[in-house]
Specification:
It is a single chain. The protein is built from 8 helices and 9 strands. It has helices at about 15-20, 20-25, 65-75, 90-100, 115-120, 140-150, 195-215, 225-235; strands spanning about 1-5, 30-35, 50, 60, 80-90, 105-110, 125-130, 180-185, 185. α4 (about 90-100) packs across α6 (about 140-150). The longest helix is centred in the last third of the chain and has 19 residues, at about 195-215. It binds (phenylmethyl) 1~{H}-pyrazole-4-carboxylate (JF5). (phenylmethyl) 1~{H}-pyrazole-4-carboxylate binds near residues 109, 133, 134, 136 and 140.
Protein backbone atom coordinates (compact mmCIF):
# COMPACT_ATOMS: atom_id res chain seq x y z
CA UNK A 1 0.00 0.00 0.00
CA UNK A 2 1.27 3.45 -0.94
CA UNK A 3 0.37 6.49 1.17
CA UNK A 4 1.56 9.97 0.12
CA UNK A 5 1.42 12.78 2.67
CA UNK A 6 1.54 16.47 1.74
CA UNK A 7 2.76 18.42 4.75
CA UNK A 8 4.71 21.58 5.58
CA UNK A 9 6.26 19.58 8.45
CA UNK A 10 7.51 16.24 7.12
CA UNK A 11 9.85 15.95 10.15
CA UNK A 12 6.76 15.83 12.39
CA UNK A 13 6.28 12.21 11.23
CA UNK A 14 9.81 10.94 11.79
CA UNK A 15 9.79 9.66 15.31
CA UNK A 16 6.18 8.32 15.53
CA UNK A 17 6.82 6.28 12.38
CA UNK A 18 10.28 5.08 13.45
CA UNK A 19 8.99 3.84 16.80
CA UNK A 20 6.05 1.71 15.70
CA UNK A 21 4.80 -1.30 13.81
CA UNK A 22 4.58 1.01 10.80
CA UNK A 23 8.36 1.15 10.55
CA UNK A 24 8.50 -2.64 10.41
CA UNK A 25 5.87 -2.66 7.66
CA UNK A 26 7.83 -0.06 5.70
CA UNK A 27 11.04 -2.05 5.95
CA UNK A 28 9.19 -5.21 4.92
CA UNK A 29 7.94 -3.40 1.79
CA UNK A 30 4.26 -3.72 2.81
CA UNK A 31 3.88 0.05 3.31
CA UNK A 32 5.27 2.68 0.94
CA UNK A 33 4.97 6.00 2.80
CA UNK A 34 6.10 9.14 0.95
CA UNK A 35 6.24 12.71 2.20
CA UNK A 36 6.05 15.87 0.12
CA UNK A 37 6.67 19.43 1.35
CA UNK A 38 4.66 21.99 -0.65
CA UNK A 39 7.10 24.71 0.45
CA UNK A 40 9.59 23.26 -2.02
CA UNK A 41 7.13 24.34 -4.73
CA UNK A 42 6.74 27.91 -3.53
CA UNK A 43 8.10 30.18 -6.26
CA UNK A 44 8.38 33.61 -4.61
CA UNK A 45 11.64 34.77 -2.96
CA UNK A 46 10.20 34.18 0.54
CA UNK A 47 8.91 30.69 -0.29
CA UNK A 48 5.54 31.70 1.12
CA UNK A 49 2.82 29.09 1.36
CA UNK A 50 0.12 31.20 3.00
CA UNK A 51 -1.55 34.58 2.55
CA UNK A 52 -4.24 36.76 4.13
CA UNK A 53 -7.89 35.84 3.53
CA UNK A 54 -9.92 37.66 0.86
CA UNK A 55 -12.73 39.54 2.59
CA UNK A 56 -10.59 40.17 5.64
CA UNK A 57 -10.35 38.40 8.97
CA UNK A 58 -7.73 37.01 11.28
CA UNK A 59 -5.05 34.52 10.37
CA UNK A 60 -3.64 33.08 7.20
CA UNK A 61 -4.88 30.71 4.52
CA UNK A 62 -2.76 28.15 2.62
CA UNK A 63 -2.30 29.31 -0.98
CA UNK A 64 -3.37 27.03 -3.79
CA UNK A 65 -0.28 27.27 -6.05
CA UNK A 66 2.29 25.35 -3.94
CA UNK A 67 -0.28 22.70 -2.99
CA UNK A 68 -1.37 22.09 -6.60
CA UNK A 69 2.27 22.05 -7.75
CA UNK A 70 3.33 19.55 -5.07
CA UNK A 71 0.44 17.19 -5.83
CA UNK A 72 0.88 17.44 -9.60
CA UNK A 73 4.63 16.71 -9.31
CA UNK A 74 4.05 13.62 -7.17
CA UNK A 75 1.11 12.08 -9.10
CA UNK A 76 -0.01 10.51 -5.80
CA UNK A 77 -2.46 7.65 -5.33
CA UNK A 78 -6.09 8.70 -5.00
CA UNK A 79 -8.31 9.41 -3.21
CA UNK A 80 -6.47 12.52 -2.05
CA UNK A 81 -7.95 13.33 1.35
CA UNK A 82 -7.85 16.78 2.94
CA UNK A 83 -7.65 16.62 6.75
CA UNK A 84 -9.44 19.32 8.71
CA UNK A 85 -12.17 19.91 11.28
CA UNK A 86 -14.71 20.70 8.53
CA UNK A 87 -14.46 17.20 7.01
CA UNK A 88 -16.83 14.28 7.26
CA UNK A 89 -16.01 12.16 10.32
CA UNK A 90 -13.29 9.53 9.80
CA UNK A 91 -14.35 6.23 11.35
CA UNK A 92 -13.55 2.50 11.43
CA UNK A 93 -15.72 1.89 8.39
CA UNK A 94 -13.74 4.37 6.25
CA UNK A 95 -10.48 2.91 7.66
CA UNK A 96 -11.58 -0.52 6.44
CA UNK A 97 -12.46 0.84 3.00
CA UNK A 98 -9.08 2.57 2.63
CA UNK A 99 -7.28 -0.59 3.82
CA UNK A 100 -8.78 -2.41 0.83
CA UNK A 101 -7.26 0.00 -1.71
CA UNK A 102 -3.74 0.00 -3.22
CA UNK A 103 -3.17 3.45 -1.75
CA UNK A 104 -4.40 6.95 -0.98
CA UNK A 105 -2.99 10.37 -0.10
CA UNK A 106 -3.38 12.89 2.71
CA UNK A 107 -3.11 16.67 2.60
CA UNK A 108 -2.53 18.31 5.97
CA UNK A 109 -4.34 21.61 6.48
CA UNK A 110 -2.71 24.37 8.53
CA UNK A 111 -3.27 27.85 9.92
CA UNK A 112 -6.85 29.06 9.62
CA UNK A 113 -7.49 26.83 6.66
CA UNK A 114 -6.81 25.97 3.05
CA UNK A 115 -7.95 27.90 -0.02
CA UNK A 116 -11.30 26.34 -0.93
CA UNK A 117 -10.15 25.67 -4.52
CA UNK A 118 -7.78 23.06 -3.06
CA UNK A 119 -10.69 21.28 -1.36
CA UNK A 120 -12.92 21.61 -4.42
CA UNK A 121 -10.59 20.98 -7.35
CA UNK A 122 -7.51 19.15 -6.02
CA UNK A 123 -8.75 16.89 -3.22
CA UNK A 124 -11.33 14.12 -3.55
CA UNK A 125 -12.79 14.35 -0.06
CA UNK A 126 -12.30 16.01 3.33
CA UNK A 127 -12.11 14.04 6.58
CA UNK A 128 -12.04 15.06 10.24
CA UNK A 129 -10.65 12.88 13.05
CA UNK A 130 -12.74 14.62 15.71
CA UNK A 131 -14.59 17.72 16.83
CA UNK A 132 -11.65 19.83 18.00
CA UNK A 133 -9.18 22.13 16.26
CA UNK A 134 -5.54 21.09 15.86
CA UNK A 135 -2.68 23.40 14.93
CA UNK A 136 -2.33 21.37 11.76
CA UNK A 137 -3.51 18.20 10.04
CA UNK A 138 -0.32 16.24 10.82
CA UNK A 139 -1.63 14.53 13.98
CA UNK A 140 -4.85 13.73 12.09
CA UNK A 141 -2.78 12.18 9.27
CA UNK A 142 -0.98 9.94 11.76
CA UNK A 143 -4.36 8.83 13.12
CA UNK A 144 -5.59 7.87 9.64
CA UNK A 145 -2.31 6.15 8.69
CA UNK A 146 -2.26 4.05 11.85
CA UNK A 147 -5.96 3.14 11.79
CA UNK A 148 -5.72 2.03 8.14
CA UNK A 149 -2.28 0.40 8.19
CA UNK A 150 -3.07 -1.96 11.06
CA UNK A 151 -5.90 -3.41 8.94
CA UNK A 152 -3.59 -4.16 6.01
CA UNK A 153 -2.56 -7.84 5.97
CA UNK A 154 1.08 -8.18 6.97
CA UNK A 155 1.20 -4.99 9.08
CA UNK A 156 -0.14 -6.37 12.35
CA UNK A 157 1.59 -9.61 13.31
CA UNK A 158 -1.69 -11.31 14.18
CA UNK A 159 -4.15 -10.73 11.34
CA UNK A 160 -7.07 -12.12 13.39
CA UNK A 161 -6.51 -9.58 16.15
CA UNK A 162 -8.35 -6.83 14.26
CA UNK A 163 -11.51 -8.91 13.71
CA UNK A 164 -13.22 -8.11 16.99
CA UNK A 165 -12.02 -4.55 17.54
CA UNK A 166 -14.28 -1.97 19.10
CA UNK A 167 -16.62 -0.67 16.36
CA UNK A 168 -16.44 -3.72 14.10
CA UNK A 169 -19.44 -4.91 16.16
CA UNK A 170 -20.88 -1.39 16.38
CA UNK A 171 -20.37 -1.48 20.16
CA UNK A 172 -17.54 -0.59 22.54
CA UNK A 173 -15.35 -3.47 23.73
CA UNK A 174 -16.03 -5.23 27.01
CA UNK A 175 -13.44 -4.83 29.82
CA UNK A 176 -10.40 -7.14 29.72
CA UNK A 177 -8.37 -8.54 32.62
CA UNK A 178 -5.13 -10.45 33.02
CA UNK A 179 -3.19 -11.81 36.01
CA UNK A 180 -3.10 -11.36 38.93
CA UNK A 181 -6.64 -12.49 39.83
CA UNK A 182 -6.53 -9.99 42.68
CA UNK A 183 -4.52 -6.75 42.53
CA UNK A 184 -4.49 -4.32 45.50
CA UNK A 185 -7.76 -5.79 46.69
CA UNK A 186 -9.48 -5.44 43.28
CA UNK A 187 -10.62 -8.86 42.08
CA UNK A 188 -11.18 -9.96 38.49
CA UNK A 189 -14.93 -10.62 38.00
CA UNK A 190 -15.57 -14.20 39.15
CA UNK A 191 -17.43 -15.12 35.96
CA UNK A 192 -14.22 -14.74 33.90
CA UNK A 193 -12.53 -17.38 36.09
CA UNK A 194 -15.51 -19.75 36.13
CA UNK A 195 -14.56 -21.69 33.00
CA UNK A 196 -18.23 -21.48 31.90
CA UNK A 197 -17.74 -20.24 28.33
CA UNK A 198 -21.41 -19.59 27.65
CA UNK A 199 -21.73 -17.47 30.80
CA UNK A 200 -18.49 -15.63 29.94
CA UNK A 201 -19.78 -14.80 26.45
CA UNK A 202 -23.07 -13.55 27.93
CA UNK A 203 -21.26 -11.41 30.50
CA UNK A 204 -19.01 -9.90 27.84
CA UNK A 205 -21.93 -9.08 25.56
CA UNK A 206 -23.81 -7.45 28.44
CA UNK A 207 -20.76 -5.39 29.49
CA UNK A 208 -20.19 -4.19 25.93
CA UNK A 209 -23.81 -3.15 25.63
CA UNK A 210 -23.95 -1.40 29.05
CA UNK A 211 -20.75 0.47 28.32
CA UNK A 212 -22.01 1.60 24.94
CA UNK A 213 -25.33 2.79 26.39
CA UNK A 214 -23.54 4.69 29.14
CA UNK A 215 -20.59 6.20 27.26
CA UNK A 216 -21.56 6.28 23.60
CA UNK A 217 -25.35 6.24 23.23
CA UNK A 218 -24.82 7.84 19.80
CA UNK A 219 -23.51 4.47 18.55
CA UNK A 220 -26.92 2.95 19.28
CA UNK A 221 -29.04 5.93 18.28
CA UNK A 222 -31.35 5.29 15.41
CA UNK A 223 -31.95 1.65 16.27
CA UNK A 224 -33.94 -0.14 18.93
CA UNK A 225 -32.34 -2.75 21.19
CA UNK A 226 -32.95 -6.30 19.95
CA UNK A 227 -34.92 -8.64 22.25
CA UNK A 228 -31.59 -10.45 22.93
CA UNK A 229 -29.99 -7.16 24.00
CA UNK A 230 -32.97 -6.28 26.24
CA UNK A 231 -32.53 -9.66 27.89
CA UNK A 232 -28.78 -9.12 28.37
CA UNK A 233 -29.50 -5.95 30.32
CA UNK A 234 -31.70 -7.88 32.75
CA UNK A 235 -28.65 -9.90 33.91
CA UNK A 236 -26.91 -8.77 37.15
CA UNK A 237 -23.71 -6.73 36.58
CA UNK A 238 -21.72 -9.65 37.97
C1 LIG B 1 -6.63 22.00 10.42
C2 LIG B 1 -7.88 24.19 9.24
C3 LIG B 1 -6.93 21.97 9.07
O1 LIG B 1 -7.71 20.56 13.13
C4 LIG B 1 -7.67 19.65 12.33
C5 LIG B 1 -8.57 18.47 12.48
C6 LIG B 1 -9.54 18.30 13.46
N1 LIG B 1 -10.12 17.12 13.24
N2 LIG B 1 -9.58 16.56 12.19
C7 LIG B 1 -8.62 17.33 11.69
O2 LIG B 1 -6.83 19.69 11.22
C8 LIG B 1 -5.97 20.82 11.08
C9 LIG B 1 -6.97 23.12 11.20
C10 LIG B 1 -7.57 24.21 10.60
C11 LIG B 1 -7.55 23.07 8.46
Amino acid sequence: MRIDVFTLFPEYFTSPLDASLLDKARRAGVLDLRFHDPRRFATDPHRSVDDTPFGGGAGMVLRPEPLFAAVEAAAPPRPLILLGPAGRPFDQHRAGELAGTPGFSLLCGRYEGVDERVAEHLCDEELSVGDYVLAGGEAAALVVIEAVARLVPGVVGNDASTDHDSFSSGLLEEPQYTRPAEFRGWAVPAVLRSGDHARIAGWRAAQALRRTLERRPDLLAGRALTPEEQELLEEPDD
